[in-house]
Amino acid sequence: MIGCLIGEVFALEAPTVLLNVNGVGYEIDTPLSTFCQLQKGQKVTLWTHLVVREDAQQLYGFSNAQEKTIFRTLLKVNGVGPKMALGILSTLSVELLVHTIEHDDLNTLVKIPGVGKKTAERLMIELRDRFKTLAQAAITSSTALPQIQFIANSPIAEAEAALQSLGYKPQEAQKAVAAVKGDFSESADLIRAALKSMMK
Fold this sequence. Notes:
DNA polymerase, domain 1; five-stranded mixed β-barrel; 5 strands; DNA damage; DNA recombination
């Protein structure tokens, strides 16, 4: 099992990071909370979870061990796969997710792409007890997101691609970004603002 990788960010294409570790490039899918902290050329440590299937092996990476723990906890919920778990952590911060579960906020969960009412109800039931032991650590974890510098694409294109990677339809992503693009010039700011508008 690959527990973490330490290397240099070689390329960024939301939500995938290409991490150069001693000359070997690892493709790692990340939640936007992690992706938005990364810059090309930056040396980082990503806490990883490896999913092995018959047709593929996929690495998922996180900026801290707490987020990785929450990701693994989400995977234990019936009907929640890696893509949905990544979407949940991209849409809600760890603190907000814990708060949502603790306060039975079903309306917030169903706004996450791919999460219907039945799945949201399962998340509520199955995570409530599991989060009791994780809540204190999650609440104290940091979610500050420094500015990101995207190299290849325009901020608008990156923001739209990031939203689509979460499961939003292209038209939904374009509409959300268009609604806030006049106020922000950085991709990370656009992504956060668009997500916030879509969760209202």
